[in-house]
Amino acid sequence: MAALRKIKSPDCIIVLLIMLIIFLLSYNSCNPTTETVDTGALKSQPPADKIVADSRINNSLLQLLRRTTMQDRTVIITMVGQEWASPGSVLDLFLESFYIGEETKPLLNHLLIVALDSKAFQYCKTVHPHCFYLSNTSTRYTKKKQLSLPQVRNKFWQEVIELAYSVVFTEVDVMWLRNPILQVDCLKEMTIACDVYSGDLQNISYVKDGGFFYLKSNAITSEYFKYQDMTRILFPDSQNRTLCEETVVNEELFETLSLRINYMEQDLYGEFCQQNINMDTICTVRANCCDDTESKVHDLKLLIEDWRSFTKKNSLRGSSPPYTWRAHSKCKG
C-alpha cells in the first residue's frame, strides 16, 4: 500500500512489549492449566460445537452462525441501528445492492445482520431471515459494564472469532456491487479495505476506510482482541479508532503478534469522499462524507440507479465509453 506511512517509535514498541508480557502473564496465572499461545503459528480455535455457551442469547448467536456460515466457517456480518433500519432506509439499499450486484445475491444466505436496538431488530426481521439483537446483555462480555459502540463491536467480533468463525465485516452503508470476498487472502489474518495518508501516532490527516474487512479465526486474532481488552482499561480513548486506523497506529503490535495484513487494491473499493470511481473494477462503495442520513440515502439511490444503468449498457454488444456516476449530489468529499 503505497500511501501507507511506516511509523517508527522505539518507545512505543517497548511499551507495547511490556504491556503484552504483563497481560500474557496475568492471563496464564488465571488459567494455570492453559498452555501459552504460540502467536507465530496458525492454530485454529476449537470447533464451535465443543464450546459450551454460557447464556440463552449466546446459544441463539451460535445457532445463527451455524445457519449463515460458508463452508470454510466464514460469516458476513453488518451492524445497524434504528436510524438506518426502516422502509426506504440505508439497510434497504444495502440489501438491494446484493440483489443487483455481480454474483452477490447468493451471499445473502451468509449475511448476519446485528441489530443494535429493538426497533432495528424488529425491522430487520421483516426484510432478512438472519437477524441478531445485540443488547447490552447480549454477550458474555457486556453484562457487567456499559460499553461504547466501538467497544461493543470489538467484543462481538471477539466472541465470533472465539467461536471459531471467521468474520467478513461490512458497514451497512457499503454497497456490494461485486463480491469483495474474492479479494480476501485466507492465508493472512486480516484483509482490509484501508489506506491512510500522512499518518502518525498523533495525527491521521486522512483515512480511506472502505468499511470492509476480513478477520481469520485463529490464535493470533484472538490474542489481538485480548490486547484490546487491556488497552480499553489503560487507554479508553484508543477504543474509538477504527480497525483501519489501528493498522497504522498499532503497526508494531501487529508485527509483534505476527498478525499478517492484506490491504485491498484501492481501485477495488470506493467511497463518497472519493472523486473518481472506476465502475469497471469497483467491488464496494461506501457512503461516507454525508452530513445526515437523508443525504446518504439520496446519494445511495443515485449510486444504485447508476449501477443498474452501467450493468445494462455493459450487457449490450460493443464497448461503452467510461461511465460517469452521480453519487456526489449531496455527499461531498
Descriptive keywords:
Spore Coat Polysaccharide Biosynthesis Protein SpsA, Chain A, about 15% strand, globular, seven-stranded mixed β-sheet, about 325 residues
Architecture blueprint of SSEs:
Layout: H1 10-30, H2 56-68, E1 74-80, H3 90-100, E2 111-115, H4 118-127, E3 131-133, H5 149-162, E4 166-170, E5 174-176, E6 190-199, E7 204-215, H6 219-234, H7 243-249, H8 251-256, E8 261-263, E9 269-271, E10 284-286, H9 293-315
Parallel strand pairs: 1-2, 1-4, 2-3, 6-8, 9-10
Antiparallel strand pairs: 4-7, 5-10, 6-7
Helix pairs in contact: 3-9, 5-6
Description:
- The protein is α/β, with parallel strands linked by helices.
- The protein folds into two domains: 10-265, Alpha-Beta Complex (Spore Coat Polysaccharide Biosynthesis Protein SpsA, Chain A), CATH 3.90.550; 270-315.
- 36% of the residues lie in helices and 16% in strands.
- The protein is built from nine helices and ten strands.
- It has helices at 10-30, 56-68, 90-100, 118-127, 149-162, 219-234, 243-249, 251-256, 293-315, and strands spanning 74-80, 111-115, 131-133, 166-170, 174-176, 190-199, 204-215, 261-263, 269-271, 284-286.
- The strands form two sheets. It has a seven-stranded mixed sheet with strand order 3-2-1-4-7-6-8. It has a three-stranded mixed sheet with strand order 5-10-9.
- Helix 3 links the parallel strand 1 (74-80) and strand 2 (111-115).
- It is globular, with a radius of gyration of 20 Å.
- 35% of the residues are buried.
- Residues 1-11, 25-56 and 136-144 have low confidence and may be disordered.
- Keywords: Membrane, Transmembrane, Transmembrane helix.
- It comes from Citrus unshiu.
- The chain crosses the membrane at residues 12-29.
